[in-house]
Amino acid sequence: MTTRCGYVALLGRPNAGKSTMLNQAVGAKVSIVTPKAQTTRFRVSGIVMRGEAQIVLIDTPGLFAPKRRLDRAMVAAAWDSVAGADLACMLVDAFRAKPDDLAEPLEALARTGRRRWLILNKIDLLPREKLLPLADTLAKAGSFAEVFMVSALKRDGIDRLLDAMGDAMPEGPHLYPEDEMTDQTDRMLAAELVREQIFMQLREEIPYGASVETESFKDLADGSARIEVTVYVARIAHKKIMLGEGGAQIKSIGSKARSQLERLLERRVHLFLNVKDRPGWDEESARLRALGLEG
Fold this sequence. Notes:
The protein has helices at residues 18-26, 69-83, 99-112, 128-142, 158-168, 186-201, 236-243, 248-265, 285-290; strands spanning 4-11, 44-50, 53-59, 87-93, 116-121, 146-149, 210-219, 225-233, 269-277. By secondary structure, it is an alpha/beta fold. It is a peripheral membrane protein.
């Protein structure tokens, strides 16, 4: 049988549901998800098999107005993903969608000349009489070839979407083993799961000023893994908050991240977290390169 394989870039405003959709499509947690916007900082790929077709889904940082160097690098990474994709999908939160707010990214995507689809997400939150006019307005604004309606959280419409993506992929050999789910390394997953817990457990200003890096990942003789992760905070005052009284806060972050890692890696994990203050890291070329956001 003829095999197919290609890249699909998932674009959208922050909190459109790109990471949730990626995880649902893959059937495992490969991209972190939090209620806060701008959680995804770099492209994360999930690998999905649909018959003889292999789809490499690329979760990208949300499209927003950048202010810091980090912000600009994140938005650039999203658009760079489109350049190498066989299909670009604009994911829109149907419940909160405002056509005027989406005009700029829709026009920018149209200018790329890439084959593009519109995916309206969270359709379970919007009455049908409002959903259809919204779909028509956005489809015309972005000149989309196809429109799909899904609820990523409930997995409604996901299988139909993936089948269509599989059919749309170009003929060619598979790029990854059929049982592989992501191109992320275990080191990257460890850092991201710690960062997810920082977003979930700490106040608004701290998560965006934190960067997480896996310093060491060792396989032990008993089959377990010893992982050392460093959390860099942008303000000296944030280090005390990150640690918590008697180290309670960082212990809670580490405990929940470790549990997630053990489920994903299917083995015991010994996770050690360090916290260091590094003011201005979000303007440093070296840190942005470490995050994969600058060459």
